Amino acid sequence: MPWTSPLRLSRRSLLAGAAGVAGAALLTGCSDGDGSSDTAVGVPLERRMRETAVRDSERLLERYDATAAAHPALAARLAPLRAAVAAHTGALASSDSATGKPSGSASPSAAASSAAAGAPAVNGEPVPPKPEEALTALADAERSLAEARTIALAGAPGELARLLASVAACGAVHAYLLTSPQGAKP
Questions:
Q1: How far apart are CA 56 and CA 177, in angstroms?
Q2: What is the 3-state secondary structure (H, E, C) of 96-149?
Q3: pLDDT score of 94
Q4: How many CA atoms lie within 13 A of 162 on its CB side?
């Protein structure tokens, strides 16, 4: 795979630089100025990061549901990827007992039925009319979220950082599968 090597090196450099910048921003922005210990700040930070990650995953689930509703022929292809995103949502939410949200709060049937009620759209954006364009838009959403999660690793506590890294890696694979010709095969 010689064609991936240059992309991998430049991507690593970009992500490492972005992670460093994000880490520096988080470190300077996490002080409350009263000299209290970092452990008191760590718990709320982790909760906020988890809540953000869950919301992002729920929006991605909505995008999967809207795409499947707009293009029923793609539903079988999208189902395993959507199931993985739902599992990620549940894993990210499972340690978040402070919010009172149940684990895996996004319901596939509720989101799919709301998408089927009108023209399928996500955050006001309609799903592209052509299946290939819809897959590309979904892959772009996966890729963008994976990159954001990779950057967030710099400020995440240990266990959450490992979980975000795993979920980001899955998102990158999903983006590849959504746009590759091999991804269309069962």
A1: 20
A2: CHHHCCCCCCCCHHHHHHHHHHCCCEECCEECCCCHHHHHHHHHHHHHHHHHHH
A3: 79
A4: 2
